[in-house]
Amino acid sequence: MITRGLVVSALVAASAAAMFAASLVRAALPPHIPVVDSTAPESRDTAGTPTPGLDERALRLAAERNPFFAHRGAAPPVEAPAEVAPPPMPETVKVLGTVVLNEKSALAMLQQQGSPPRLVRVGQTFGSWTLDRVEPGRAVLRGADGVELAVLVSRPGR
Description:
The chain is α+β, with helices and mostly antiparallel strands. The protein has helices spanning 4-28, 56-64; strands at 43-44, 50-51, 94-100, 106-111, 118-121, 125-126, 129-135, 138-142, 148-152. The chain has a domain at 94-152. Helices cover 22% and strands 25% of the residues. It is elongated.
């Protein structure tokens, strides 16, 4: 038996489906772009300033080449900023481990390629670098020119 409530519910569901379909169609269509005839005389805006007519070719080109997509075209070349030379750093320095007992007592086991590992306390030199501070898992070295270099433990947990 079909009741009045069932008929009303069916009508509401059908109208909701129709409105949803209409909004999907509206969303899928491209927006309307008015084309102004380039041969039209100049018009004036509300302040009285003359505004030239829009070029139809330019409008069509703008509509075809969406400026918000990356494939639009190549950007003009940009000059690369001048590279700052990195400080000379011992590329062969490895931090094998760190020990931090307290703020005043910390050390790191450092190694340069081709030499045995060495325990270095904060304030001691290692090659051309001075061990500035030690944190769990990393050592901070300071060069003679004041440049800091933070080196992480090369293989933590081993």
